[in-house]
Amino acid sequence: MDVTETVPGTPAPALTRESVALRTRRLAAARRRASALLAAVTALFVAVTVIGAHGTLLGYVQSGAEAAMVGGVADWFAVTALFRRPLGLPIPHTALIVERKDQFAATLGQFVQENFLNAEVLVERIRATRVVPRLSEWLADQANAARLAGHVADLVVRMADAARDEDVQRVLASELTRALGAVDVAPLAGRALRVVLAGDRKDELINIIVSVADRYLADHQAELREQFAGESPRWVPERVYRVIFDRLHGRLRQRLASMAADPDDETRRQFREWIAGLPGRLETSPELRERGERLKQEILTSAALRDWSFALWQRAKDTLRAQAADPESQLRRRLAEALVAGGERIGSDGGLQDSIERVVESGARALADQFHDELAGLVTATIEHWDAAETSSQLELLLGRDLQYIRINGTVVGASVGLALHAIALALA
């Protein structure tokens, strides 16, 4: 019979966990019962023998007690010989668990390998438990999807926290450098500017530039005055260069205001023509391309890029941590919605279910074929490292109570056989 036919389709009931103290008390009680029965039949045999087996009834009693005593002693010997040497005597083939622990480990490892880590067994078990349909039903439930989304988000946060910030920052900076290094800045800027200027947006762009320039001049007047003073000759009186600067600053702002107010302003017209030709110059001018490359290299080798990539990673981690901690965050809602949609899609698409089941079965076969030797070796090595005496003691606590009933059964069966044999002997006499 194929071993897969013996695998049940429903999960086995969970074993009841018992404390060592409870198992010890139950074993002691079972041992007392078996020993008391053996002592009783022994006392009965001695009493009948001393009295003298006169009469048919006493003959049956003596024969039954004698056979029960033999059966009980034999089963006591057999049960005891599993775990220790009976009466401490060096009798061959006793204390089997202690003496054969390593052989038992190898046998158990082989048994697990052949009957539990077998590819066909695993596949049959997967089919019997309907993993994919049950998974789709579970995922389609909003509450389940929300819980799983929370676990996934927490896992991502733990992975991000486990990564060294220096390594991530170095990778980000390296990837940014690699990506930007392959880009020609000037032609790209020209194409981008051409898109911006499409639809006759030159005047809109000029207004923005003029407004920004005027605001900068207004906000940084004192700073610009100090810089102007630093560039002026020392022999020029302070009052003179201040007057010159204020007049230049005012005239420049007036010029910007005129450009903003008059669409036909000559300076504005010239600026419009310059902007209109700028995309073409950026795309074709070797000089502008060289300037763009120098600027790009300065940016790529600057500390500012490293600082920016580090700050980018820190902001990403902080955002991720906050999103993962909030059950109502967009991240967790999106994850939950994706999980629900995936569960519903799997549940409604039989072809997709079959495909996933084939993938799962293939994965189970691959794992069984790849790791069944290692897992069987793990079982064997684990048992081999156990202390032999402790192993025997633990197994006796686990199995000894039932084995004591074997002693009782042996005593009862021995008595039955003795009575039967005595009856046969009388019939043949």
Notable features of this structure?
disordered N terminus; 429 residues; rod-shaped
Description:
By secondary structure, the chain is mainly alpha-helical. It has a domain of 181 residues. It is rod-shaped and about 150 Å long.
Q: What's the end-to-end separation, in Å?
A: 50 Å
Uncertain spans: 1-15
Let me know the largest β-sheet. none
The geometry reads as rod-shaped
Helix content: over 70%
Strand content: under 5%
Number of helices: 18
The helix-and-strand class reads: mainly alpha
**Quick check: average pLDDT?**
79
Instruction: State the oligomer.
Output: single chain
How do the helices and strands follow one another from N- to C-terminus?
HHHHHHHHHHHHHHHHHH
By DSSP, the count of extended strands is 0
Radius of gyration based on Cα positions: 46 Å
Give a summary of the structure in a few sentences:
The protein is mostly helical and 429 residues long.
List the helices and strands and how they pair.
Blueprint: H1 20-51, H2 56-83, H3 96-99, H4 101-115, H5 119-129, H6 131-140, H7 142-162, H8 165-181, H9 185-197, H10 202-219, H11 221-231, H12 238-261, H13 266-284, H14 286-300, H15 303-325, H16 330-348, H17 350-384, H18 388-428
Helix pairs in contact: 1-2, 1-18, 2-18, 4-17, 5-17, 6-16, 7-15, 7-16, 8-15, 9-13, 10-12, 11-12
